[in-house]
Amino acid sequence: MGLKQIAIIGPGGTVARAIVEALLHNGSFSLTTISRLTSTYQPPLSSITSRVVDFDSYSSLTNALEHQDVLLNCLPASALQLPAQKRLIDAAAAAGVKLFLASEFVADILSERYALFPTEIVGDKPAIRRYLEEKCKEKGERIGDEMKWTALNGGPIFDLWLKHPAHPSGFSLKDRTARIYGDGSKPLFWTPLSMLATTVVRMLQHPEKISNHAVRICGVRNLTQQTLKGALEIEMGLNEGFEILEERVDAEALKREALEFFERGEKGKGMKGLTLWAQFGEGGGEEVWDNGLVGVEMLGVREAVREVLENL
């Protein structure tokens, strides 16, 4: 399955921009960005074809996707509701797209933890994947014509979590303060943004390895809050270390509080607590990764931290 023509729908987001940059750096692909009618997105290079499309129109989507080998779905969670995604998937199949990469880019969307998140906020990704799987089983006019699917699951994005002003990692790089959940030893499976983008390129280079299943990667080996704290202190030259604002924070209590917030309609507070619990709460360990399948090596904690600090 030779893949040359790559369409990216929803190209303006953080993940999409990193993927476009990685594809351009590789130089083997012809890129087309697909944006909605109200979008102000402009491609970074004139060599990229830009199409503005009515996302509510099946025919408009189908016409935009003609002659495209791959559709990289980078739409945000707010756009990932099943009816609209069915229309997009159907249009891709009708246009002859060979490979559809679903918009996931998070941890395992089929896990019990992920099922607790409200679909109106994070998108109905499990249902979308089920529909995509069924659509890709439909036979084309010739044997082998059916569209293939794939997805990339890399957990939270390491650098974004570390730099985010709300400090979901527990660390404030600016204030040199830390909040430790439990004893700080819970394994964390996070992936740097650049590695996510590189992995997408590797997937497109070897579609036979990734067709009709999700690819799950982990970007940083032996990552915990404690190893992260140690790496930050060394790389930032903090002789006195981080000031611990709070330690042994009860992540299970955060979950209980989050569910209560959702019941009261306070979705923002609920999302914050549930997100922290999903990372730092008990259980939920994942140990089987596809890094070898796609040829990406995990970074050490200090190496990952160094890359973040160099790009602050």
Summarize, please.
With 312 residues, this protein is of the alpha/beta class. The chain contains 13 helices and ten strands.
Write the layout of secondary structure elements.
Layout: E1 5-9, H1 14-26, E2 30-36, E3 49-53, H2 58-65, E4 70-73, H3 82-95, E5 99-101, H4 119-122, H5 125-135, E6 148-153, H6 158-163, E7 171-172, E8 177-181, H7 193-205, H8 207-210, E9 213-216, H9 225-235, E10 243-249, H10 251-263, H11 267-280, H12 291-294, H13 301-310
Parallel strand pairs: 1-2, 1-4, 2-3, 4-5, 5-6, 6-9, 8-10
Antiparallel strand pairs: 7-8
List keywords for this structure.
312 residues, alpha/beta, 3-stranded mixed sheet, 13 helices, 40% helix
Instruction: Tally the beta strands.
Output: 10
Rg over CA atoms: 20 Å
Strand order of the largest sheet: 3-2-1-4-5-6-9
Task: Give the end-to-end Cα distance, rounded to a whole number of Å.
Answer: 40 Å
Biggest beta sheet attributes: 7 strands, parallel
Show unreliable segments.
Answer: none
Number of helices: 13
- The proportion of strand residues reads 15-25%
State the order of secondary-structure elements, H for helix, E for strand.
EHEEHEHEHHEHEEHHEHEHHHH
Q: How much helicity do the residues have?
A: 40-55%
How would you portray this structure in words?
- The chain starts with a strand and ends with a helix.
- Helices cover 40% and strands 15% of the residues.
- A seven-stranded parallel β-sheet has the order 3-2-1-4-5-6-9, with helices on both faces.
- A hairpin with a 4-residue loop joins strand 7 and strand 8.
- The protein has helices at residues 14-26, 58-65, 82-95, 119-122, 125-135, 158-163, 193-205, 207-210, 225-235, 251-263, 267-280, 291-294, 301-310, and strands at residues 5-9, 30-36, 49-53, 70-73, 99-101, 148-153, 171-172, 177-181, 213-216, 243-249.
- The chain has 312 residues and is an alpha/beta fold.
- It contains 13 helices and ten strands.
